[in-house]
Amino acid sequence: MKDLTPPQRLFLTEILKLRLVIGHRKYQEIEKDLAKRWAGYWGEVALANYVKELPQDIYLIFHDLQLQYNSIHFQIDTLLLSQKSILIIEAKNIAGTLTFDNTFKQLIRKNEDGTEESFEDPRVQCQRLQSLLRNWMIKNHCHLLPVDTLIFFKSTSTILKTNSGDKMDFSKICKGRDIFNKIDGMDQRYKHERIDIETMSQIGNLLLSQQSPKPIDILKEYNLTEKDIRSGVCCPNNECNYIPMNYKRGVWICPACHMISKDVILRTLSHYFYLNKPTITNQEARAFLHLPTIHTTQKQLHKLDLKKSGKTKDRLYYLNPEKVPPCVLSLKTTY
Question: Between β-strands 159-162 and 97-101, what pairing exists: parallel, antiparallel or unpaired?
């Protein structure tokens, strides 16, 4: 089983928004993308809260499964593995009135002001994931189970429609708690067990061992460079997040909220590691943290006990997951 954690692209976008220079032309684009990624994540959270009610002796549940077939990376929101079948579930958190356009294979949302937005048709997305997973299973010599798909909409108030005259099968689309009816229906469709418990466990372990997240260069995706990123220590007060704090006599002082702290540079270094590169030199750290001397910088870095290599001016400090948390989000409490 694989639990759900905030996706890397979400917290990288969160950091990028925080660090982007004030008034940057890309700010609104990044802010809009961040809102979409939060919505997507909360859709996955809602889905996870439902499927955890399923009997654990029947299903192995995997969230945010990231696999690679040849050179193609693909991500599955939730995968249910049983002795009968594999079910891919894609979560959608799109409110309003949604129309499935069968002609151009798109999902169209009509907003209250009369404007329309187009989204990728989740049916097309599921078909692609189904094909990739089947090929991945064949390549890994475990093509023993049928692979099916289901699209889950978080909001029960979402209205689903098709263009007039179009015929559409909604048997693989659900909202809210209707997901249990869909899963039960699929369980009845595949009546016979095709593998034993031991084989199911082996397939589950293989899925976990083959996790292959796609590397993300968030600056490159937005055509940005280090010059577009604000340096300086970030205030640890999440209601403030002012950049930069001032260093004076061993403590950091926020000029905005006046918070004083001694141990705040780890969060800022994590921003550097995730946005720029997984190593940093004394000189680079001094510039990014706005410290007065190389000796002060060395003292501050020594406190963190980061993994390092080299000596004196050529020493490199490394991103260490045990020291630098993989997720630095201040998660919102509502969705």
Answer: parallel
